[in-house]
Description:
Blueprint: H1 3-24, H2 31-41, H3 54-79, H4 89-114, H5 119-129, H6 150-165, H7 167-178, H8 184-223, H9 232-249, H10 254-273, H11 280-283, H12 295-299, H13 308-343, H14 350-369, H15 378-386, H16 392-402, H17 408-447
Helix pairs in contact: 1-2, 2-13, 3-6, 3-10, 3-13, 3-16, 4-5, 4-6, 4-14, 5-7, 5-16, 5-17, 6-10, 6-15, 7-8, 8-9, 8-10, 8-13, 9-10, 9-13, 10-13, 13-17, 14-15, 14-17, 16-17
Amino acid sequence: MSFILWMAVLGAVLLTLALTSSFLRWMPVTTSAVCLALGVAISPSGMGLLNLDIKDAANWMEHLTEVAVLFSLFVCGLKLRLPFKDRKWRIAFGLAGPVMVLTILGVCLLLHYGFDLAWGPSMLIGAILAPTDPVLASLVQVNDAKDYDPVRFGLSGEAGLNDGVAFPFVILGLLFLQQPGDSSAWLNGWALKSLLWAVPAGLLTGYWMGHGIGRVTLSMRIRNADSTFSPNDYLTLALIALAYVAAESIHGYGFLSVFAAGLGLRQAEVKSTGDTQTPAEHLVQPLVNHQNVEPEAAVHGDVENLEDTQVAAGIMMGDMLAFGSLVERAMEVFLVTLLGVVLVAHWDWRALVMALVLFCVIRPLSVWLIPWGRLLDGRQRSLIGWFGIRGIGSFYYLFYALNHDLPPAVATLCTDLTLSMVALSILIHGISTQPMLARYERLNNQKS
C-alpha cells in the first residue's frame, strides 16, 4: 500500500470530521462511530482503497496502540486533581479493582460455559476485554481538572488504573495457554511478580517522577522568568517516555507509571499554587495568547494579580493538556478507522451475544455488587454500570498477545471477538452517550 494512498485516506478522514463536526455535536453520534463507518467504506468490502493484514501488522500495531494509550493515560492523570484522601477515589479504586476482576470472571465463565471454549482462551479474552478505555471514553470522563462529578471522576480513574491492572490477568491467560497442566509451579511466581510487585512499582515510580519533575520544572521557570516560552510539549513527551522506561526497567507496569506521572505532576501544581479550588490553567485563561505578554509581567504577577507559581503552573498544565489531547484525538481517528478497514473480515456473530451479556448484565451487576455506601446513588451506579466502554486498550492487549506465540486458532478467535466487541461498544455506547449524559446533567442542575 503506497504512502501517498495512506496520506490521502488520512487527509480525507480528517477533512470529513472537520466539516461534519458542527452537525455531529447535535446528533447522538460520536467521532469514533464516524471513523468506524469510514473505515468500513474504504475497506476491501467497500471501495477497496485500503487493506490491512492483522497478522503482518501485529508488531507495529502493538507499539502504535501502546503509544495511543500512554498519551491518553497521561492526560487522564493530569485531569484528576482531587487529593487521594478524597472519598471519590474509592469509586475509581473499586471500579479498577473488584469490578474489573468480576468482569474478567464473568466473561471467562460466559465463554467457557456459553461457547464451550477452553479455560485458557476464555481467561485471555476476558482479560483483553476487561479494561475500560481511556481514549474512546473521553466523553464520559472528567471535562477538566475542576470537574469533580463522582460519575465522571470514577470512570476517569477507572480508565487510568485498569489499563495497567488488567496486565497481570492478560499474562495469566497467556500462562494458562502456554503452560498447561499443574499451575502451582508458576502461579505463585505470577502473583508475586506480575501482581504484588509490578502494580505498586509502576504506580510509585510514575507518581514520584511526575511530582519531582513538576516541582523542579516550576522552580526553574520561576527562577529564570521563563514561564511563557518553555517547550511544554517536550516536557510531555519526556515525562511519558521516562516514566514508562523507569517502570519497565524495574519490571513495573509502564501504563500505570505514565498515568501516575500525570497524577504526580498535577499534585505538584496543587502544591505550587496553594491548593486553590480553581486549577492553575483556568486561572491563566485570560493569558491564552501568552506569547503576546511580556514574560516579566506574566511571571511577576502583574496580569490578573496572579502569583508567579500560578502563572508558571497554569501555562505548563494548559499546554501539556492541549498537546496530549491533540495526540490522543489523532491516534483515535487513525486506529478506529483501521478497525473499520478490518472489521468485516474479522466479524464474529458471537460478539452480539457477548456484547448483550457484558454490557447489560456482567458490567452493571459487577458495579451493583460493590458496597458503595453514600458515594453513589442508584442513578449514578446505573450510569457507571452502562459506560464500560471498550476500545484502544483492548487493542493493545490483543496485539500484545498475538506477538507472544498464540496458537493459530486461539489467535484468530481472540482477534475476531476483540475487534467485533470494540466495534459494537463504539456503536452502542456512542449512540447512548450524549442523550444519557444530557439527562444526567439536567437532573443534576434541577437538584442544585
